Amino acid sequence: MKQYEMVIGLEVHVELATKTKIFCGCSTEFGKEPNTHTCPVCTGMPGSLPVLNKKVVEFALRAGLASNCRINQTCKFDRKNYFYPDNPQNYQISQLYIPICQDGWVEIKTDTGKKKVRIHEMHMEEDAGKLIHDEWADCSLVDYNRSGVPLIEIVSEPDMRNSQEVIAYLEKLRCIMQYAGVSDCKLQEGSMRVDVNLSVREAGSESLGIRTEMKNLNSFKAIARAIEGESERQIELLEEGKAVIQETRRWDDNKEASFAMRSKEDARDYRYFPDPDLPPVQISDEWLETIRKSLPEFREEKMKRYQEEFKLPAYDAEILTESRSLASLFEETAVSFGNAKKTSNWFMVEVLRLMKERGMEPEEISFTPKHLADLLSMLERKEINSQNAKKVFERIFDQDIDPVIYIEEKGLKIVEDLGRLNEVIQKVLDENPGPLKELLDGKEKVMGFFVGKVMKEMQGKANPESVRKSLAAGIEKVGIEKAGIEKRKAKE
């Protein structure tokens, strides 16, 4: 059998996080009642005219600069004509001839090393509405809330050769967009959508095969499965001597197969022409420089700083910077607490544990960094034990309680009462003669049993170190007494 390789390029649609739509003042808020965020402009009413949202241009520039793109300081909008029920105007305002950004790149890292994936262009456009298929009523309904929501479409060169590179590229793009503050890139909400253009060719060949475009991909796992499934389909066709047809296909993740939707359109099929209602966009040097200076510290810079300034291990720095919101939460907590390494340890264990248990994304975390910093300070001062601190943190994570007030109200603060502690130790030793004998006979592991018993009796209000010291002293005293008794018996 011949050896084949994949050639993959992506079209990534990213919804911009502006509060209003690209050409009107309607809200872009997700998840509202159908057709409540609409007006004559975004529903394509006759006589309505678009007015460009300046924030959309700013966000597109931020995305382009963050992706090493060349900026076209004069760009313009074009009409892309197509006739779908979710497209109320029967055309989409997009950019074909002079997009806002071109010739960029991002660097990805996979098992085979680092690689640059080139970005052919990045253009602004408006989103279409959303078709909702009601199988019970056997009909399709249209929600125009999404119609007119601003998008940037990021078109890569066909530089990727396998699904691992594709996922690495998408993760890098998502990270850049989130750090740049232009989009939340939630695939489950459709604010990041991916179309995969894929062809196969004999390994070593320079010519490109016939490509197909796959749509309906709403998770990275689905994208990886679609790439593997479509490449196998194309290879089987070539091995059977059949031709691959250039077409748009729909990926069904449940059936793990793609299905033909329509023949693949070329630009001429859309009858593009300059939009007569929108003048060219002029981007001044001053505005561009202002946006360039406003860009934040991106992940690679932040990872390096965390290792140098905070002395964090490379692994911790990598995990903590995967999300801009998680990095911000960590950094604010670390500065407030004053110990970055101990803050990192808490995030790497407790914060990530609760995120996994709650099924939450970093952007959904809502506790105040100072509340966690206050809890860590109390733990550092031994005013609360670690077991109770973890329970209190769950309340902070879920309800953002003030730990100082909560610990005081619930009586969880450690009180050094050595008299009471010694009474409890004596009681525990008296009630457990068997384990005590094992401990005196040299079975040191039994010490943990006694520490647990004493902590339970003290209701977690004892300092574990004090418990261990007092317990050791009490056991030593018992041992001395036992040795004295045995010595006297021997003399008798």
TrEMBL record:
It catalyses: L-aspartyl-tRNA(Asn) + L-glutamine + ATP + H2O = L-asparaginyl-tRNA(Asn) + L-glutamate + ADP + phosphate + 2 H(+); L-glutamyl-tRNA(Gln) + L-glutamine + ATP + H2O = L-glutaminyl-tRNA(Gln) + L-glutamate + ADP + phosphate + H(+). Its EC number is 6.3.5.-. Keywords: ATP-binding, Ligase, Nucleotide-binding, Protein biosynthesis. Heterotrimer of A, B and C subunits. Belongs to the GatB/GatE family. GatB subfamily. Allows the formation of correctly charged Asn-tRNA(Asn) or Gln-tRNA(Gln) through the transamidation of misacylated Asp-tRNA(Asn) or Glu-tRNA(Gln) in organisms which lack either or both of asparaginyl-tRNA or glutaminyl-tRNA synthetases. The reaction takes place in the presence of glutamine and ATP through an activated phospho-Asp-tRNA(Asn) or phospho-Glu-tRNA(Gln). This is Aspartyl/glutamyl-tRNA(Asn/Gln) amidotransferase subunit B. The lineage of its organism: Bacteria, Bacillati, Bacillota, Clostridia, Lachnospirales. The gene is gatB.
